[in-house]
Recover the amino acids of this structure.
């Protein structure tokens, strides 16, 4: 299953490796599954300001040991995983 999110110009996403995962496990997972980022579409609003309304829809597929976060969520406390 992939994470789907939208980003506007200047917005970021961050890719982290879990603290409880060894370097060897991360390398093996990335070598085996890879990290896939797909652009699902580019959208614009009807704004008269150039580039203001541009948005890209991304799908990110990564091994479970890789964490993908929107930049604005990095400082927020993490929810316990189920």
């Amino acid at each position: 299953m992939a994470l789907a999110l939208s980003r506007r110009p200047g917005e970021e996403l961050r890719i982290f490796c879990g603290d409880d995962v060894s370097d060897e496990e991360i390398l093996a997972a990335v070598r085996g599954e890879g990290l896939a980022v797909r652009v699902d579409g580019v959208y614009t609003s009807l704004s008269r300001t150039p580039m203001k309304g541009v948005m890209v829809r991304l799908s990110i597929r990564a091994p479970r040991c890789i964490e993908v976060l929107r930049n604005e969520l990095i400082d927020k406390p993490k929810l316990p995983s189920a």
Remarks:
- Helices lie at 23-33.
- The beta strands are 3-7, 13-17, 36-43, 55-61, 66-70.
